Amino acid sequence: MKLSFEKGFFAPLPVLIIGTYDANGTPNAMNAAWGGQIGMTQISVSLSSSHKTTENIRLNKEFTVAYATARQIAACDYVGITSGNKVENKLEKCGFTVTKSDKVNAPVIDQLPVTVECKVIDIQEEFGETRVVAEVVGLKADESVLTDGKVDYSKAGLVIYDTVSKTYRAVGESVAAARSVGKSLNDSCQKMLSELI
Fold first, then answer.
1. Which residues pair with 151 in a beta bridge?
2. Which of 77, 74, 106, 79 is nearest to 90 (CA)?
3. Count of alpha carbons within 13 Å of 178, Cβ hemisphere only?
4. CA–CA gap between residue 79 and residue 76 (Å, rounded)
5. For residue 91, which of 79, 96, 115, 141 is within the disulfide window of CB 3.0 to 4.6 Å?
6. Reported pTM
7. How remote is the C-alpha of 172 from its chain's centroid?
8. Closest Cα partner for 101 from 66, 132, 135?
């Protein structure tokens, strides 16, 4: 039996580490959970207007998004709980080093294996937040997380944010092939229909 609750939630959420440069070229990163893909090549991220990252995105109109990993979870959490407005060298403090992206004016965090490079399409103020919509223009992935030339997320050790328990959870193993496993039900329905005719 299902129980009814007053408030709902949307889970799980990706743990996104957004990389930017400020006006002086100093790299910054923050942990964000309110984001996701909104088409084949676009993403949307909701940020507080007071974040250093939001200011940097407005300035450069470009940023990177790395996926947090279990191996680097303390550093990934640190960049979320430490403000770039108060601690200028927070990447250095948590042990992250960066390489400048060759596609956008933003840093790629060396310790995180998968990063997408983004160019801003639109910035909107809504519901007390700043929503950034961006085009994904590139991807960087460590060779160690590739299988047959494609990113293998089971090798990357990605984590998700559980909004209910406010914890990070490891992404598990593959359970089935998408757009494929359901075909077995279609086949059995077709068989039942043919037997009825």
1. 146
2. 79
3. 1
4. 6
5. 96
6. 0.87
7. 16
8. 66
Element at 94 (helix H, strand E): helix 90-94
Chain centroid offset of residue 164 CA = 19
Closest listed residue to residue 22, CA positions, set 69, 63, 68, 59:
59
Does the structure show a pLDDT above 70 at 197?
Answer: no
Amino acid at residue number 196: L
Average pLDDT over residues 52-66: 96
CA 156 to chain centre: 13
**Cβ-contact 102, 115 below 8 angstroms:** no
HSE, CB side, 13 Å, CA atoms: give it for residue 135.
6
Distance CA(32)–CA(76), nearest Å, equals 10
159 near 73, Cβ under 8 Å?
A: yes
Fill in the amino acid letter for 1: M
Tokens 């992206």 correspond to what residue?
Answer: 101
Tokens 């293998």 sit on residue: 152
Tracing tokens 């200011």 back to the chain, one arrives at: 55
Cα 173 vs. chain centroid, distance in angstroms?
Answer: 18
In the chain, the percentage of residues whose pLDDT exceeds 70 is 94
